Amino acid sequence: MFDTKTVSMEWGGKTLTLETGRVARQADGAVLATYGETVVLCAVTAAKSVKEGQDFFPLTVHYQEKFSAAGRIPGGFFKRERGATEKETLTSRLIDRPVRPLFPEGFYNEINVICQVLSYDGETEADMVAMIAASAALTISGVPFMGPIGGCRVGFKDGEYQLNPSMAEVAEGKLDLVVAATHEAVMMVESEAKELTEDEMLGAVMFAHDECRKVIEGIIKLAEQAAKEPWELAASDDKSAMKEEIRGIVGDRIAAAYDLVDKQERSNALNAARDAVKAHYAEADGQTTMTAIKLTKKLEAEIVRNAILKDGKRIDGRAVNEVRPIEAMVGFLPRTHGSALFTRGETQAICTTTLGTKDSEQMIDGLDGLSYSPFMLHYNFPPYSVGEVGRFGAPGRREIGHGKLAWRALRPVLPTQEDFPYTIRILSDITESNGSSSMATVCGGCLSMMDAGVPVTRPVSGIAMGLILEGEDFTVLSDILGDEDHLGDMDFKVAGTEEGITSLQMDIKVAGITQEIMKTALAQAREGRAHILGEMTKALGSARTELSAHAPRIETMQIDKTKIRDVIGTGGKVIREIVAETGAKVDIDDEGVIKISSSDLSQIEAAKKWIEGIVEEAEVGKIYTGKVVNIVDFGAFVNFMGGKDGLVHVSEMKNERVEKPTDVVSEGQEVKVKVLEIDNRGKVRLSMRVVDQETGEELEDTRPPREPRGDRGDRGGGDRRRPRGDRGDRGGDRGGRGGRGGGRGRDRDDKGGGDPDHMPAFLKED
């Protein structure tokens, strides 16, 4: 029934299997990719015609994780997968970025690439498997895809590169890098690193490229068995004559526009030139007008690229390795915990850092189960930042991607939770944009954290590099403008400290990026990063030693795990009481680590003292301050050390006879007590009479010492260990007790003398 085609290969210690023909047979191309026990289905469908007037390529990549893949049911109120999570959005972008440049120019048929995780083994990350499945599905679908591409993940530990490491291995190592590449060239790099050198990063990329070639060979073998007939593309007409005509109309005006340094002036001049082209072809049909507009943009790119390659002349007049003027300011906003305004040329970001407690951590519900992140970075790109009118609302894929890049760049320098037990949120609001706003977020975000007092290991800066490549001639550009990004061949972002790289992201628009070009770009980026770090240091060179007055204070204490239940109490009663009485927040984990937080240090001290009282053991002979919590006929119970209760017998309240405890104390009264005895059951006997209630100093005990408990026969009480049957002579007026002998003349509810059976053992002697 099924005409199934399969290719398998051993790769990175596991079997990679690509299968088609069994599932999703009505799609143009569908591949089931299995690596370990992680399985991803990718289905590709393409529209057979182009919508009239369409002049862009509508490629959409969707990556979705099915909770059933890990044997889980989604958390929360809705028990089905809903909108894309951050991870799903980022993985969709991860696949889209290397695939999009490999479609021919002028191909505008709509394409859907849908990747669904069907099985997840908890070790093999599904993003890389999905990328391979997408590449294979596109290759066999017949659409004009100039692939295939391969993809892999690389780790770095103990000086060795690791192919497709598990998430545990990535956490233990110094690198998490994902690479996509064709057989000839690297197309995409995404990474987070713990201050690796340029040579180590370049080596990782080259290692990954070699491994990607092995996957490409497997995809080609599958295509040889199962590929559909390739689509026939309409032959493109020669537009050279029309292009030269446009050059004659506006060529000089475009060149003059790119001599303008100010972005807005340049944009106005270019729009005027484009309007002139539209006016020239106003009487032509719509297709001709659309072609003229495209050729105008090509002419713009040609003018800019030739000026850079031949004359080293950039749009704003800078040298190819020159960074635009930088101005950095910290403490920009008065009430935030930390803030910075970072401006580089016409790119600007307001970054704020907010410190929170553990309950502010971000909860993430994914295939690996529930996890919590104490570090968040959110990036916003309003339309006014580029002087445009546009949608303003929930973040799009681009904003999520740029925020995650900055997050990766800054996370390696964060202090541990043990050293700095705060939840950290950075908010980056882009207020101007002409060039890399994600790298401005890295710089501004780092400054705002240092302004907030976050003890980062070292400051981090970031820079965006560009490339102009024609044949074997190339020029690498530092700190690219927006136009240089659009008209160039590479978007190469590098962030790091003075010690090494913390994040690298690269997107290539053309094939043929060599190792030499990448090495040149990394070296030039290092120089640019060092310059930017120097400018940042002028604003703030290291983290402030004091937190903002508006930030919460957090103190951490460690208790014995056996005491956790005492601090929490039945149903959380004790910990809720601590929070209600002191006003501080209290969090406790399964290891006995307690975090106490408040903006008021006195509240923290009160909660800490309370908890210490619960977990500490009372010492015989030591004086404590306590509170009367209950008064009974024979004395008063006093709560001390926060969680301990002891009895002050009526005879220990004063050095004189006390008729009723209420004559001396009242509930809620604060008293000073000395611990006289702790029995083997933990019951505590206290005394007020030997402590000065004003000063808390111990007084001399003028009473004769009590006799030892074991020898009391001379006090008329007889042997306390005698059988109950011998107790009948204790007074006939006490009423009958049935078969137990003796009598009890006082009813249980009569409070005149109390119930001796409910008294502590050490009090029954009285």
TrEMBL record:
The keyword Metal-binding applies. Its cofactor is Mg(2+). Its EC number is 2.7.7.8. It is an enzyme of class 2 (transferase). Belongs to the polyribonucleotide nucleotidyltransferase family. It is found in: Cytoplasm. One of its GO terms (cellular component) is cytosol. GO terms for molecular function: 3'-5'-RNA exonuclease activity; magnesium ion binding; polyribonucleotide nucleotidyltransferase activity; RNA binding. InterPro entries: ExoRNase_PH_dom1 (IPR001247), ExoRNase_PH_dom2 (IPR015847), ExoRNase_PH_dom2_sf (IPR036345), KH_dom (IPR004087), KH_dom_type_1 (IPR004088), KH_dom_type_1_sf (IPR036612), NA-bd_OB-fold (IPR012340), PNPase (IPR012162). GO terms for biological process: mRNA catabolic process; RNA processing. Residues 692-766 are annotated as: Disordered. It holds the Pfam family KH_1. Its main location: cytoplasm. It comes from Novosphingobium marinum. HAMAP family: PNPase (MF_01595). Keywords: Cytoplasm, Magnesium, Metal-binding, Nucleotidyltransferase, RNA-binding, Transferase. Involved in mRNA degradation. Catalyzes the phosphorolysis of single-stranded polyribonucleotides processively in the 3'- to 5'-direction. Residues 701-736, 744-766 have a biased composition (Basic and acidic residues). Mg(2+) binds at D485, D491. Residues 621-689 form the S1 motif domain. This is Polyribonucleotide nucleotidyltransferase. The keyword Ribonucleoprotein does not apply.
